[in-house]
Every structure is written in C-alpha cells, then in structure tokens.
Amino acid sequence: MKTNAYTLLIVIKVAFAILIITSKGVAQVRNFIPNDTRKTDLVEVIQKHFQKEDKVKEDKVVKVKQANKKLYLSFVPVSTKRRGGKKVFVSSFNSAFYLGKSDSTYLSNISLEPSTNFSNKFGLGYRFNLWTKNNTWNIPGDINLSNLDSFTWGLGANTVDADKYQIATKSIKLYFSLNRDWHKTNLFFYGMGINYDRFYNLAPGVSPTNPSSFEKYGVGTSESLFSSGISFSALYDNRRNSVNPMKGTYATAIFRTNPALMGNALLWSSLYMDVRRYIPLTAINGKRRILAVWAMYWGTYGSVPYLNLPSTSQDLNGQTGRGYTFARFRGKEMLYCEAEYRFDITQNGLFGGVVFANVESFTEPDTNQFTYALPAGGFGARIKINKKSNTNLGLDFGFGKDGFNFNAQLGEAF
C-alpha cells in the first residue's frame, strides 16, 4: 500500500502522543497487584483432576507454601515454523521471580528458547529482565547463539515474495544493559550497556536477481564480521509485571554507537525508541479486558551491516510484524504501530483471546523515505500456564499481504 511519507510520520507521532496522554497516573498502577486468587491455571486444573481425597490436607499445606514463594516456573514445548523455511522444534521456558518484596519490587523474568531441526541446525535464545530490590537497578539482556539460516527479500517495503532467497550464517548476539533508578522514583531509569554482534560462515544462496540485493548493498556482506558497541538508555516503566501487564506505561530510548576504538571496521549507530500503553477496560461478568497499544521507531545510520539493519521480527523483543515471516522486510529505518484487544473467555482466567492489528514501514533504498505501509492483523488464543506470574501460552494467527503465519510462545507479544 503506497502512502505519503509525511502521513506515516504523522500517524506514528499521534500514536506516541496517545500512549502518553492516556496515562491516568502513577499511584494507581504502583498499588496494583497482578495476582488474583480466584483465577486458575493449567497446572492447577491438572492437579485438581488427579488429586486424591487422602491428600487434601497435604495439598492445603502445599498451597500455602506456593502462595508464599517468589519463583514461578513455566514450560511449554512448541513446534512451529521458523527461519530459513525449515520446520524447527522449539521449546520455551520462562521463570518469573521477585528479587525483593513484591509490593516494592517489579517482577523479574528470564526466558530460554532452545531450537533444533534434529539435524545440523540449532538456536539458543536467552533473554532476561531483572529488577533488584526496591527497583534500584534494572538489568535487561539478550544472548542468542544460532546457525539457523534466514531468508531475505531485499531492502524496502515494496519487495515481493519472488525476491526471496536464502542466507546461510552463524551468529552470536550479546546485549547487556544496566539501568539505575533516578532519584529513587522507581519509575525513571538511566544507564549504559554493551552490544556485540558477530556473523560468520556467511554465504548467500542463489538470488532471483544478479547482483543480489545483498551483494548490491555491499556493506557487512563479507564471510565474517562483527560489531561491538556501547549504548546509552533512558527508561520509564510503571508496569509491575512485564510478562503480562494488566496496566501501565513503558517507554524507552536507546542510542547505540560502534566506534573504531572498539575494533569496528564498519562505523555505525542506531536509535531505538519504544512506547507501550496498557489500558484496563471495564470487566464484564468478572472477565478482564485490556487494550494494549505499541509504537516504535528504529533507525540506523552510517555503514550498517546488512544483517544489522532493522527488519520484521528482529526488534529487541523479536515481536514486530505478526502476520509476516521472520525478516520479511528490511531497511535502514523502521516505523511500527500495533494495537491488541485482550480478553478473558472464562471467568477463572484459564482461557482467553486476543485480536490485533499492526502496520510497519521501512525506508526505501533509493530514496531513504518511508513510502509504503504494510498492514497486518490476526487473532489468538490464550491458556493460563501460571497464574502467579500471569504467564499465558499464546497461539496467534497473523495475516499479512503474503498470506498468514502461526506463532506459539510463552507470554504476550508486547
């Protein structure tokens, strides 16, 4: 869909403004407790089904102990279609816990996602978002090791499916940040981080065009390369639970630079801005309803390696562009908006659903302008896996201009 660049920029600016303006104050959010003893989850249902009468008293003692614990684990084996067009077995582990008192410390979480095709391809993703006691420090990080191949369709938002070809590569990604609470506000944070990307054994496959878009771009297309950088971040976060926020606002700005003094042959920088708002709606018959909205800008500048350019589903959380294949679109700058309506289907919170719509755009390689808008949408089911951490199993069906895709994961998309 072709549209004017200025129109897209206005839409994004309005979305950012709405996210901030709709905030209704800090005190209500800070006093919000996400757990609800009336709710249930899949593990509890299974336990009750197999519970024996002679263990009722023992179970009551166990429930008391579980209610006081600070660590909540979730695990789901998932089989889904991943990068390179190959079917890969993917499992997902999630651990949520408090590093301080739950009334003064946000919920920390760690997720682990190993994947393999049981042949010669594998991947291991490890993400964490830690909050120390009284939210004095916030420590986010992302570690990813992979030799999963990827497809690319070239640059810009006007590529077609016939442009697709494969890029074989092995990669290492190490991101780590340390954010400090600003004047004990428990809301505003500032910090620094380190970022390391390495790609090696990089080999593009046969392209439908000669030269390929990869070769034509010509930056960071050698067999082996790395980028080592430092980042500076500013953060506002009043969500008590980032695994599945019930209300609150999240906003961050991260500037990354990759200077020569850190051994970089290619000098480049990036700016990443992300704002999200979670608006609780009036419950119907005890069933929760939430409107979640998200706006993001990701820009890169300088001699940016091809595989470090912004692309679909390669944001810091790997969640943009539901409805499109991994890395379907790519460009030097990216704009993104999404809205999702979340609702309970059952009063006990065991089953729920979502309906979502998103739009993304990338700058064109020739003009460096936002010219095309790429809408997508879909729906999904939710199954409560752990009511203490409010972790859901998400099963999402997304539809874009090329067709549809399916995604299964622990936790919400954003």
Give an overview in words.
The protein has 414 residues and is mainly beta. Helix content is 12%, strand content 48%. The protein has five helices and 17 strands. It has a 17-stranded antiparallel β-sheet that branches. The chain starts with a helix and ends with a strand.
What series of H and E elements makes up the topology?
A: HHHHEEEEEEEEHEEEEEEEEE
Number of helices: 5
Number of strands: 17
Counting helices, strands and paired strands, the structural category is mainly beta
Helix content: 10-25%
List the helices and strands and how they pair.
Layout lengths: L4 H17 L5 H4 L11 H9 L5 H13 L2 E11 L5 E11 L10 E9 L5 E10 L5 E10 L3 E3 L12 E17 L6 E17 L8 H5 L7 E13 L10 E11 L9 E17 L2 E16 L30 E12 L6 E12 L11 E13 L4 E10 L2 E8 L4
Antiparallel strand pairs: 1-2, 2-3, 3-4, 4-5, 5-7, 6-7, 7-8, 8-9, 9-10, 10-11, 11-12, 12-13, 13-14, 14-15, 15-16, 16-17
Write out key terms for the chains shown.
globular, mainly beta, 414 residues
Question: In summary, what is this structure?
Answer:
The chain is mainly β and 414 residues long.
